[in-house]
Amino acid sequence: MKRRNFINAAALAGLGLTFTSFELLPERKKIRGTFSSNKNKVSIYTNAPVKPTRIFHITDTHLSIDDERGVKYQEFSKRMAGAYKSNSHFQTEVEYSTKENFEQTLELAKEQAIDFLALTGDIFSFPSEAAVEWVLQKLNDTGIPFAYVAGNHDWHYEGMKGSSQKLRETWTEKHLKPMYQQNSPLYAAYDFNGIRFVCIDNSTFEIQSEQLDFFKSQVKSGSPLILLMHIPLFMPGRTMGYGCANPKWGEKTDKNFEVERREKWRKGGHTKVTFEFYDEVFTAPNLLTILAGHTHRPAIDFKNGIPQIVSGHNATAYFTDLIINSLAN
Ligand SMILES: [Fe+2]
Fold this sequence. Notes:
Number of helices: 7
Radius of gyration: 19 Å
Structural class: alpha/beta
Number of strands: 14
Bound molecules: fe (ii) ion
Shape: globular
Order of helices and strands: HEEEHEEHEHEHEEHEHEEEE
Strand order of the largest sheet: 1-2-14-3-6-7
């Protein structure tokens, strides 16, 4: 814990207040400061003493690189391997492969000395070992630290038997493991420049109780947090793509289970744990922003003053260029 946050914690404890009392603090003591956006650029100024940090938020590249190791899985990877073959660049409209668009994004990140890469899932269209190796090589070549959380396609071999939870457990362990840099696929935290990047895998749309406990402990730490997830959290007026903690999510609203050859969404909808997680996120005094993907359409929403940034799909080379700066600097 940073010294300044520790002092805040001690002062609050002395007053008999908890961290959830941050909202009572004078404006300059609150962690969230200002928020501005322009096209794919976002800047967030915080009252916390963080170092200026520029982040590329990359999501939904949908790479379908494969080699002979993937032949035995072709029955399960065929449909997604054929998707996103060619994509027009979000700025130039020139057609490129997803591979070329991912490379261009990373080259730009390197050229512009970006500090951190936040990857929020569906980087892969299916869990190909060859693709994972290729991505890791590309990421390591940039020399830029990164955090990765899975999307619903990263671990999914369509038509393979098993629940979504079980398939995620299997393929994050068998093929995606190196992406997690020795951390758990379900939840992890990466400290960088005074900011804590918290990854929560909600790629089944749901939250498990150990993930909720982990997130609560991150809120209690008092560190300025950035939450990385694949599925955006529910926002009234948005589509079912904003499905995590969406009160309408469930068996009855699942339109794609046949095409994607997977189990239907949960009968009866979300569990209490997922709803509790939602409340915890949108009352977290030290959460700077949520970064998500999945819908492939860039959009920003606010709830209780907390922004949720959904980035466009990097299959078109789209990324969100996010700058975190301190009002104290
Ligand atoms: Fe996607």
